[in-house]
Every structure is written in structure tokens, then in C-alpha cells.
Amino acid sequence: MTDNLKGILWMIAAMAGFALGDVGIKALAALHMPLGQIMMGLGAGGTLGFALWTRGRGLPLVTARLWHPAILCRYVAEVLAALCMVLALALTPLSSVTAILQAAPLVVTIGAALIFKEGVGWRRWLAIAVGLAGVLLILRPGTEAFSPLSLFAVGAMLSLAARDLATRAVPREVASLQLATVGFSALILAGAVLVPFGDAFVPAGVVHWSWMAFTVLTTIGGYYAITVAMRVGEISAVSPFRYTRLLFGLALGVTLFGERPDGWMLIGSAVVVGSGIYAVLRERQLARG
Q1: What is the sign, positive or negative, of the torsion defined by CA atoms of 129, 130, 132, 136?
Q2: pLDDT given for residue 79 in this prediction
Q3: Which residues of 191-219 are buried (b: 16+ CB within 10 A; e: fewer)?
Q4: Fewer CB atoms near the end CB (10 Å): N or C, the chain?
């Protein structure tokens, strides 16, 4: 088995883990657990898990480098992403949330061109425009099918793109595990923000704890898998398989939550994914000269 194939398989496993984590959040919301309680529980569990992992690698949990402006910007983006994501998953279909999130790499490319002055040719600009048009097909503003609640997914997508852009400016001396620990702690703050607007915390029973553990473990597993994928295979070969998250999201939404994506959403999803894959392959072609 080649390194690229190994990387692709790890990437697919990562996307499955993240999709299952989304299922866990929807399941907890369906059990009438307040969103603030969900986020604080996930944040605490994930922070503890990554903190133990970080210390196991002999890395410090606290270092002066974590106060770098890029990390602070990344933290703010993580909080906003967590707020929008949990609201989107609780209030809108999993399949549509997953589809909208696939536009994040296109927004990252726009940000990289505007902020970091990275070169983006007209073909990739066209792919970006087509991909964003695909998002509009999913949302369908101005029609009866449009739901204002779907804007939470758009907010999550934009916040995740901002997080990825901030990550590019993080000093290389800061380990990925340290970033992940800080990132998960942002969920605790996001949950605290939601607490005053939600119901009182509910006593967590076996079912609640089981779903909470499931969500934390699948998300941590997804992070581990994507880290291995990016290190084992070539980024240009592995990155297109990020879009398998959409397949998992659609399948899980239909089978577990009885969702029925309509034709426009499927077409919009295909447009977003196709544009994203083209942009990645075009970047790979240019890198090879």
C-alpha cells in the first residue's frame, strides 16, 4: 500500500469521525439537553483528552507562545464556529449543514489571496465563484424553501475558514496538539455564552453520558486521523477526500434522522464539492509546474 493510499484512507476515517461527532451533537439536542450544557461537556471532555495526549508527548500545556495574536484570533474563530455549529446541528438538517461546510476551503482560498497575497489564477477564482453559487442553491434565499436558521451553518463555515486562515499564521514552534487543546477549550466558553439563553441544565443519565463520550471520542479520533493523513500522504493527493464528509453526512442524515434532501440541495452540494476538488487539483498542477 502506497503512502498516498494510506493517507487517503486515514482522511476518509477522519471525515467519518467528524460526521459521527455531528450525529452525537444532534442526538444530545434531541434528548433535550441544553445546548450550553452540550458544548461545555464536549469542551471539557475534549480538552481533557487532548491535554493528556499533549502531556503524553512530553509537551507543555501552557507556554508563552500560546498568547501569539494568531492563536488568539484562532481562539475567537473557534468560539464563533462552535456557537454557530451547535445551533445549526440542533435546528437544521445534518445533511444541509454538512453540505454548506464544504465551502470552507473555497473561502480559505479567498482569504489566503487577500490576506497572505497568495497567487490565485482566474480558473480557481471561477471555481470559487461556482462553488459559492452552489451554496446559494442549497440555501435558496428569497424562496419558500429558505430557512433563516440555515445561516447558522453559513456562520459556522465562515468561522471555520477564519480559524484555518489564523492557523497559517501560527508559529511553527507551537505543536498541533497544543493548538487542539486550546481549540477544544473554546467550546467551554461557547457553552458558557449559551447558558443564559437556554434551559436549566438537566441531570445527565447513562444515555446522555454515552452520547457525550461517543461524541468526544469520535471527534478526537477524527482529529488524530486527519493529522496522520496529512503527514503520511501528499497534501494534494489527500485533501480532495475531505469531501467524503458530505457523503457521510448525507447518509447519516437520511438513515438516522429521516432527512430527505431535495434535488436542489443535492445539485448545490455537487457544485460545491466539484468546485473544491477542481481548486485543489489546479493548485496541485501549478505546484508541479
Answers
A1: positive
A2: 95
A3: beebbeeeeeeeebeeebeebbebbbbbb
A4: C
